[in-house]
User: Fold this.
Amino acid sequence: MLGALLILGFAIFLAFFEPVLASRKLLNKDNTKKYDAEIKKLWTIAKDSMNSRKTLRAEKALLTILKLDETNAAAYNRLGILYAKAQNYDEAIECFEIAQSLDNNPMSLHNVGLIYLETGAFEKATMAFQQALKLDSSVPARFLALAKAEEKLGHKKSAIEALESAYNLDKSTTTLRQILTIYEESGDQENIEITTARIEQQIAADALKKAELEKAKKKEKKIKESAPVRMSRPQPKIIYPRANTPIKALKKAAINSLSKTTNSAAAKTKTPTTRPSVSASQSAMIKQPTIVKDQGNSLSNTTSRDKKLSTTTSSSHRANKRPRMIQ
Assistant:
């Protein structure tokens, strides 16, 4: 009994509740598609507005994104950059801190450090840059920002260390010149000479690198110019065998033969069918048989007459076979 009730209950569930759940799933799918399209549209508006320096429009777009999705760290980060450009540093720091709490991203920490550096909070700036470098130490700009903050605090040794780390990544003469200025301010003559020698070496290395690149480009250009251009293969011409007689002569011969055949056919149709002419003597012989005295002569005469009549009838029969002209 209990089993039957369970089966009945399951059947009722399938009949009534399953379609409702399926429709809800479909609605959720449609809503997610609409949501994604809306977010994408708002992001394009925000980016275009920031590029064209329309700050109010960009701010509205980013705030609407955050209304739809409160956990969007990228939107908070962009909003913080927008406030930092407008020198709304408190709001910018708040946005960057929220972005950092949502997503442990070195970029938001670096941005917070830059605002602290701008506002004069150098200790907070150094802390932010150090945290960012712990997460990602492959960007030379972060080491340079840390060196600036350390220099402002008077930590020249740590500033030089940060600049050396940046130089190992970018191999730039500007970084070496920054190191030289710190040594010049401190009056360290030995390190000044070493750093100037390094700058000269770096300049020579850059010049050599540039020359090699130009040489490689020229070589590549020469190879391209000297390389034969592959032409498309011409298709073979179909040569038909020539006739012994020219085409005009063949045409003439064909026309002549056609005209001859037509003429002969016309001549056949025009010629009237003539009956074979019978001579006067033959007719007389047929009409008036000669009275022969002897019996033997009479027999010979009859046989000859029969022969002549047979020849005339056969010739007339042949003539009758020809087509007759209707007069």
